[in-house]
Design a protein that fits this description.
The chain has 19 helices and 8 strands. It is of the alpha/beta class. The chain has a domain of 200 residues: 3-Layer(aba) Sandwich (Rossmann fold). The protein has a 4-stranded parallel β-sheet with strand order 2-1-3-4, with helices on both faces. The relative contact order is 0.12.
Length: 426
């Protein structure tokens, strides 16, 4: 990284020694997992460039925008409406972390038996290694699981400006009323932050931008339904990961260009694996960068991932916002309707998620489902048990994998996944 970047990181308040350590590990892991893949589409060079500049060029863009008065809003959940942020000419970036860091320091704030996603949020802050977090003018949390709710009570004391959105836990008339009220409050928060009023035209344009981004990943998902699969699950997961912090217009353009290439590969029957390769749907907890452990094991064990039923995947991006309204009220109603369709495991009951998994199995011609959960994530670990039984009853092979961000269980997980793939091979 250039001296210019190091000066920028220092001014943001990063711990440069810790950051150097993180980036060295990230670069090696990325090269080992992604650059070692065979027969990747050429346009995946865009993904390599984004990751090579993950804490460089993109952060520089954010910092330069801040100097011109453009605010940065950091978030930890797909429930936070990006449309509202963009409508006020601000930028939204995802802050979730997929690696352990500063574990001793984290232990001073959080119990050991808490999910790795939450602990890594603290680790990246306490270790001073996340420029997206340090560049954020506002950090937004959300009341999803109990772990996050209570952790945010502590985390708010570690960042300079923190806001929490409340979320419903059941889908009913009251849920819609609550979510609409929270979105209305969020508009006020964002308007106060930016000093800009959200208008009908501004919100419509923002909806168009985010819808276009979602349509690009929908197009990608549709192409993955082909046999042979034209792109790996690892590269597809990476696309869904950078979805949360890359410039949305540039992201949309680049992913559509990649899809143009994939359409040619489909026509030519060019795939990243043979047509007979077992096809896996992975379902469950979100996977933030650089949490590539389980997908890498799957795709180096003789299978290919064809879909992600995850917040970092189809659960978070599958529905669009109806942009036909002509008033702010009607557009906000449409926005709330869309976000209420997210079938996160925080909801009880959550039958929509079960149906969505079955739909994805059929749509992407999956041979089996791997139900992935981060250790101590109660919502997804509890749901996985019943979902596994239901899928097996329907004749859909399924297996539960519960893990954390460490590498200690790689051998054990690989053995279980290889046995599952052997089962799919018959």
């Amino acid at each position: 990284m250039s001296q210019e970047y190091r000066t920028m990181w220092r001014e943001l308040g990063l711990n440069l020694d810790n950051h150097d350590q993180l980036m060295a590990v990230l670069g090696k892991v990325y090269a080992d997992i992604f650059l070692s893949q065979q027969n990747r589409p050429k346009k995946t060079e865009y993904l390599d460039f984004v990751m090579s500049e993950v804490h460089g060029l993109r952060i520089k863009e954010l910092v330069e925008g801040k100097k011109q008065g453009r605010k940065v809003v950091g978030t930890y959940c797909t429930f936070v409406p990006e449309e509202i942020v963009i409508a006020a000419d601000a930028v939204m970036v995802g802050l979730c972390a997929g690696a352990d860091f500063a574990t001793e320091e984290v232990g001073k704030y959080l119990p050991r038996n808490l999910c790795a996603l939450i602990k890594s949020t603290f680790g990246f802050k306490l270790g001073g290694v996340c420029p997206y977090l340090e560049a954020s003018d506002l950090v937004v949390g959300e009341n999803t699981c109990d772990g996050k709710k209570k952790a945010y009570e502590v985390f708010k004391n570690l960042v300079h400006d923190f806001y929490v959105m409340d979320l419903p836990q059941m889908k009913n008339d009251g849920a819609r009323t609550l979510l609409r009220s929270e979105c209305d409050k969020f508009i006020v928060v964002i308007e106060n932050l930016t000093g800009k009023k959200i208008t009908v035209d501004g919100l419509k344009k923002a909806i168009e931008i985010v819808n276009a981004k979602r349509k690009a990943v929908h197009r990608l998902s549709g192409l993955r339904a082909n046999r042979p699969v034209p792109i790996s699950g690892l590269d597809s997961l990476l696309i869904n990961q950078i979805f949360f912090y890359e410039d949305p217009v540039r992201f949309t353009s680049q992913i559509n260009a990649l899809c143009d290439e994939l359409e040619i590969r489909v026509k030519d029957k060019t795939g990243i694996a043979s047509p007979e390769t077992p096809r896996i749907l992975i379902s469950g907890c979100p996977m933030a960068v650089p949490n590539w452990k389980v997908p890498s094991i799957i795709e180096t064990s003789g299978a290919v991932i064809v879909g992600e039923e995850s917040c970092v995947g189809e659960r978070g991006s599958r529905n669009l916002v109806d942009n036909s309204g002509s008033t702010l009220d009607s557009l906000m109603d449409a926005l709330v309707d869309r976000y209420l369709m997210i079938d996160c495991a925080i909801y009880t009951p959550n039958n929509e998620r079960r149906e969505h998994i079955r739909e994805m199995v059929a749509q992407y011609k999956a041979d089996g489902v791997i139900l992935y959960a981060i250790q101590f994530c109660a919502p997804y670990t509890v749901e996985a048990t019943e979902i596994e039984k239901e899928l097996e009853k329907d004749g859909i092979p399924a297996i539960r994998i519960e893990t954390d961000y460490s590498q200690e269980d790689v051998g054990q997980i690989k053995t279980r996944i290889q046995a599952f793939i052997e089962r799919l091979n018959g």
